[in-house]
């Protein structure tokens, strides 16, 4: 976690959570670890324009908990799920100063909430 001080500005603004400060990235990391195991990223692109850096990837992981607030109250499925993300960072003074994200959380929720087929039901082809 000490390396976060080197990457994020003191007044870092996360537009996703509405929180300010370096600490939010550690909170999000903890939520992710509480929610998903065996995390894998398939990196599609990293792009820059002026003081902006965008990162587009697909996350795949196994659902093991509900650390993210939007997952609260859902049964833990143990399913492997995947969903796309685009994260945009504004850089200032060699640090990340702001963050926005577009994630396909609806696709993730559909994967988590999908009924589990019983052993006697045929699988859709």
Morphology: elongated
Indicate the mean pLDDT.
Answer: 91
Helical percent range? 10-25%
- Characterize the main sheet: 6 strands, mixed
Order of helices and strands: HEEHEEEEH
**Mind telling me which CATH architecture this is?**
Roll
Tell how many strands the DSSP assignment holds: 6
Helix-and-strand structural type: alpha+beta
What would the CATH topology be?
A: Nuclear Transport Factor 2, Chain: A
In the sheet with the most strands, the strands line up as 2-1-6-5-4-3
Low-confidence stretches: none
Alpha-carbon Rg, integer = 17 Å
Overall domain count = 1
Strand content bin? over 45%
Question: Mind telling me the CATH class?
Answer: Alpha Beta
Describe this structure as you would to a colleague:
The chain has helices spanning 4-7, 23-35, 105-113, and strands spanning 8-14, 19-20, 36-49, 52-63, 80-92, 95-103. It has 125 residues and is of the alpha+beta class. It has a single domain, classed as Nuclear Transport Factor 2, Chain: A. The protein has a six-stranded mixed sheet. The model has no long low-confidence stretch (mean pLDDT 91).
């Amino acid at each position: 976690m000490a390396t976060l001080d080197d990457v994020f500005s003191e007044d870092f603004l996360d537009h996703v959570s509405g929180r300010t400060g370096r600490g939010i990235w550690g909170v999000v990391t903890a939520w992710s670890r509480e929610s998903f195991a065996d995390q894998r990223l398939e990196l599609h692109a990293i792009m820059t324009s002026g003081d902006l850096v965008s990162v587009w990837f697909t996350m795949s992981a196994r659902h093991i908990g509900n650390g993210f607030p939007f997952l609260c109250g859902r049964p833990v499925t143990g399913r492997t799920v995947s969903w796309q993300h685009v994260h945009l960072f504004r850089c200032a003074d060699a640090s990340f100063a702001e963050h926005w994200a577009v994630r396909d959380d609806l696709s993730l929720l559909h994967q988590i909430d999908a009924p589990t087929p019983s052993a006697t039901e045929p699988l859709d082809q």
